[in-house]
Amino acid sequence: MLDGLGWVATAFFAASYFCKTSRAMRRVQATAALLWVAYGIWMHAPPIVVANVIVASLALYSDWKQPRLSSADNRQPEI
Questions:
Q1: Considering only CA atoms, which of 47, 10, 45 is closest in space to residue 29?
Q2: CA-to-CA distance for 59 and 37, rounded, in angstroms?
Q3: In the chain, where are the structural domains located?
Q4: pTM, whole model, 2 decimals?
Q5: What is the mean pLDDT of residues 32-43?
Q6: Under DSSP, is residue 70 helix (H, G, I), strand (E, B) or coil?
Q7: SS3 string of 28-77?
C-alpha cells in the first residue's frame, strides 16, 4: 500500500507535464506534492514532508496569485 502511494504521487507529478495550461499544471503538481506529504508522514520522513509542503504551498500560492484573464484579454493582438 505504501509503495502504491509513492507511485501514485510520482504518476501525478509526471502527468502534470501534459497539462495544457500552467494553472492546471500547478494544481496537479500541488496534488502530487500533497500525496508525497502523506507518503512522507507514513514513512516518518520529515525531509519528504517539509520539502513537499513547501512545493505544494508555492504551487497553490502561485496559482492563487496569478491574475485571471477575461475572455477579452485572451484575444490575439491586432497588427
A1: 10
A2: 14
A3: 7-64
A4: 0.77
A5: 96
A6: coil
A7: HHHHHHHHHHHHHHHHCCHHHHHHHHHHHHHHHHHHHHCCCCCHHHHCCC
